[in-house]
Amino acid sequence: MNLEKLFKPKSMAVVGISKRNPLSPGRIILVKNEFELDVGVYGIHPEAGELEGIELHARLDELPEIPDVLVIAVGADDTLKYIQDCVDLNIPSSIIIGGGFAEIGGKGIVRQKKLEKIAFDNDIAVLGPNCIGVYAPPLIDTIFLPTERLTRPPRGSVALISQSGGVLIDQFFVKFNERNIGVSTAVSIGNRAVIDETILLKYFSKIDPDTSNIAFYLEGFKDHKAREFLQLAKESEDTIITYFGGITDYGKIATQSHTASLGSNLKILTSALKQHYIIHPHSERELLTYLKVYDILSQRKKPFGENIIVFGNVAILSVSGGHGVLCSDMLKKYGLTLVRFSEQEKIEMLNLLNPVAREISSVNNPIDLTGSVLDTDIENIMRYLSGIERIECILLLLLPYPPNISFQIGRRIANIITNKKKPVITFLPYVAKYSLIIESLEIANIPVFHSIKEAVQAASALKLRSKITSLKKDTTYWEDY
Amino acid sequence: MNLEKLFKPKSMAVVGISKRNPLSPGRIILVKNEFELDVGVYGIHPEAGELEGIELHARLDELPEIPDVLVIAVGADDTLKYIQDCVDLNIPSSIIIGGGFAEIGGKGIVRQKKLEKIAFDNDIAVLGPNCIGVYAPPLIDTIFLPTERLTRPPRGSVALISQSGGVLIDQFFVKFNERNIGVSTAVSIGNRAVIDETILLKYFSKIDPDTSNIAFYLEGFKDHKAREFLQLAKESEDTIITYFGGITDYGKIATQSHTASLGSNLKILTSALKQHYIIHPHSERELLTYLKVYDILSQRKKPFGENIIVFGNVAILSVSGGHGVLCSDMLKKYGLTLVRFSEQEKIEMLNLLNPVAREISSVNNPIDLTGSVLDTDIENIMRYLSGIERIECILLLLLPYPPNISFQIGRRIANIITNKKKPVITFLPYVAKYSLIIESLEIANIPVFHSIKEAVQAASALKLRSKITSLKKDTTYWEDY
Asked: How far is CA B180 from CA B91, B187, B282, B439, B448, in A?
């Protein structure tokens, strides 16, 4: 089954285009790919003619070339005919947008069985049915909703696979964009009649060169495929993260009306995931935090250096005592430890500060430089902490309110970190006027979070990945994970 | 002790103004109050003259009137002299910005004892020392940081008291603004030598007409005052919420360097708060969610009607199955229950839908109207659910991606809710282009949240307040809270 044709197509054809309704799914897909994406697009309509300047072809077998992928946006029975066309015309892959298959029960189940047989017998890579398909920038976007209503994430290292199209475009796209997390390919698997999470894990892990992190939103594994999925994950060099919906009693009932798959027992599931080095965050926010960190670690420019090992020993640097307190409160839950400074180190740090801040700063851990801080104080302390080997990660709570902190501070810190290669996680309030500072850091691949909790989660993400990487290499650094 | 003079002053004087440094705290306070706020401002400088067009007076006893409040931004020893001036000149209240008191130990403790004695003996309402003071719009703002660096929250019903100035201006101001939560008065209590959380609780609960909700960030109660605080809270008609920092071992160490007060034992604390009907959220986000809901319930226009009682029975309405699943998963944790629909109700709901959506929608709870939804489908179902008495709150997960949802949808829903008086909590993605829909709802006092979790927390906030209100009135609806 050739998934490269599906995710990196040179050409696509679309069936199910309405000449009357500009908001029909097939027409939206035709127009957005023609106008916005790099794939070559052929529109199929029995009357041929043209639509919004795009030439339409009457039949699939009249196209000047065999398309890599056929997007099918017609009723369920016609869908099967078009899948047969794929076989007859050697079209290697197809995306089925419409429903009317297993999710409606009865005859829908029969239809889906037929679909599966044709696809597997003829090795056609079929995605769906009942899905929004693929977003693989800059090539293809089969999301049948108007682009201007959507928020697209930037390009990056994360392959994103979702059993719910709504969750994909809302919970992930919107929040990836907010957090600047990059996507290689996003896939809505719908009923996953043919292509399922396991096939996708294999492709993204072993074949796709653009993906280093693979994230799944699932409402349960496909029958009999869990074992293969887990084994593939354990052997993968990529970081695998799963998030499950439908895991409570209410959620399970909701899942049944939605995708007709049952969520697994959470405890057994969690334990199996852990044993196979799959990261399983507690909340959606934690998922997003992890992905942001791992996407950054996958960039070519590595501000923290190669092969980061973080056992969990951190230093907190703040200009507000209360922020230091709130941050400290969260460390234990996330398996992090405050490094203790020696008296000598404290004296050396105080000597690096301006005289006013020196009087009132606290150089315990957390360090509180107070509102009397200057840019140079923060720079000096960051440089000093970067030189202490037993500090594995600095949590920098950077409040830009003190009057003497300049808007250069982000750039100054980025330069120090890039030079020193010390892992640093920053917290900065999410306020439009501070975007210059935020961007200074993010441009240099230093992650910025907008809540203290997420910053702490991000530090724990470094620890978690260090653990998993070591365990996959059979090193014995770590106690049983 | 007259706190009205402190929080609603007609005039203030400022000492500690630098003619050379435009960023000195005293000067920032002088200029921002003169240029941006309604209070009358007198600047005191031994050389008199003028500064940025503001006349300066050489001595406090030369002012044309006795100011309501004296803001002191000088060194610790001089501070005590100025407090004595308050006594001699009958200035009823003072805000001490500077440090050098109990937080530095040793002679600082002696100074603070002196300060306390003068203030209590002469009934001067002293705030601080070591604080950023008061923000009470539109009258006074003694935050000694440049206004253009800060994000001010809107005006509203919440009195906000914080033991950390940094937490007040960052964790609260920024996030109140993001969430449109309104503040009556914000107070940084610093070392709380004289005015402490208990005195403030009494004032905001019994005297201030603008406050209906009182929120505290504390790192522990002031010695020997916990009992009085708890008793006042239990008797209060306002909603009281506390959030404690410094509650873990690491946090406690951080607290000691910061405000030198010890956090209490969390379990004992939690139990005591509960017994006195004080809301004690698990996280900062939960705190913010609760405050947003309670601020809205305190508005004069009440879209949900008076005396809302929510036992926790909810309906979920979505256009994405996955969102329904994720929302359902969170209900149990927050003590909420999905109402079951009868077969008759399901048929009636289906009959309200457009033919395409009718085919593929699920009208179990959660309801999934799918991407084929029209505005009128959402309106019809909202009106229908509003008429079902056993539904106490509707969780509306409103994704604006389906092509036929118009930007009028927010207004349409607002009109229905305002008419039907059914509690509704909405989730909408936080994307700039959807602000028209978001604002349509918020203008009508219908709360919008930008994560499913916060929407669920908000529904639980209604239940929690229903419980506490009933318990305070000694009704027997509720099992032991």
From this structure: 36, 19, 21, 10, 10
Q: Judge: B323–A250 Cβ closer than 8 Å, yes or no.
A: no
User: Closest to A325 (Cβ–Cβ): which among B168, B251, B324?
Assistant: B251
Measure CB to CB from residue A321 to each of B150, B258, B321 and give the nearest one: B258
Dihedrals φ, ψ of B321, to 5°?
A: -55, -45
The pLDDT tens digits of the residues spanning A191-213 come to 999 999 999 999 999 999 999 99
DSSP conformation letters of A314-345: EEEEES-HHHHHHHHHHHGGGT-EEPPPPHHH
Question: A108-124 burial string, b = 16+ CB within 10 Å, else e?
Answer: beebbeebbebbeeeeb
Are A327 and B171 spatial neighbours (Cβ–Cβ below 8 Å)?
A: no
| Distance (Å, whole) CA A60 – CA A58 | 7
Query: What separation in angstroms does the CA of B357 have from each of A76, B281, B316, B377?
Result: 16, 40, 17, 8
**In whole angstroms, what is the distance from residue B116 CA to residue A259 CA?**
67
Instruction: State the average pLDDT for chain A.
Output: 94
Q: How many other C-beta atoms are found inside a 10 Å radius of the C-beta of residue B396?
A: 26
| Residue among B358, B378, B377 nearest B426 (CA) | B378
Residue from the list A245, A321, A324 with its beta carbon closest to the beta carbon of B322: A245
Handedness of CA A200, A204, A210, A213 (dihedral sign): positive
Say whether A165 and B322 touch across the interface (CB within 8 A): yes
Three-class SS state of A16: coil
| CB atoms A328 and B219 under 8 Å | no
Q: What is the CA radius of gyration of chain B?
A: 26
Q: Which residue in this structure is represented by tokens 């500090």?
A: A391
High-pLDDT (> 90) share of chain A, %? 88
**Gyration radius of chain A over CA positions:** 26
Q: Which residue has the tokens 């240099």?
A: A444
Residue of B nearest to A266 (CA): B329
**Tokens for B195?**
């005015």
What is the Cα–Cα distance from B321 to B400, expressed in whole angstroms? Answer: 14
For residue A475, the tally of other CB atoms under 10 A from its CB is 10
Burial class (CB in 10 A: 0-12, 13-18, 19+), B14: buried
Question: What are the φ/ψ torsions at residue B388 (nearest 5 degrees)?
Answer: -90, 115
Within 10 angstroms of residue A348's Cβ, the number of other Cβ atoms is 13
Interstrand relation of A183-188 and A133-136 (parallel, antiparallel or unpaired)? antiparallel
Q: Residue A263: pLDDT band by 50, 70, 90 thresholds?
A: very low
Q: Which two tokens stand for residue A353?
A: 């500060």
Q: Which residue has the tokens 């869908």?
A: A79
Q: Rounded to whole angstroms, how far apart are CA atoms B164 and A321?
A: 7
Prediction ipTM score: 0.91
How many other C-beta atoms lie within 10 A of the C-beta of residue A50? 11
Residue A325 Cα, gap to closest chain B Cα (Å): 5
pLDDT of residue A249: 78
Amino acid at B197: E
Cα separation, A226 vs A204, whole angstroms: 17
Place of tokens 């599931």: A269
Is residue B219 packed enough to be buried (19+ CB in 10 Å), middle (13-18) or exposed (0-12)? Answer: buried
pLDDT score, position B262: 41
pLDDT tens digits along B201-217: 999 999 999 999 999 99
Rounded Cα distance, B341 and B347, in Å: 10
Q: Give the residue from A385, A307, A327 showing the smallest Cα distance to A352.
A: A385
Residue A148 is classified by DSSP as G
User: Which of B325, B334, B337 would best serve as a mutation to test chain A binding (most A beta carbons within 10 A)?
Assistant: B325
Contact A325 B164 (CB under 8 A): yes
Cβ atoms B183, B156 nearer than 8 A: yes
* Sequence-ordered list of residues with C-beta below 8 angstroms from that of A267, at least 6 positions apart, any chain: none
pLDDT in tens, A171-191: 999 999 999 999 999 999 999
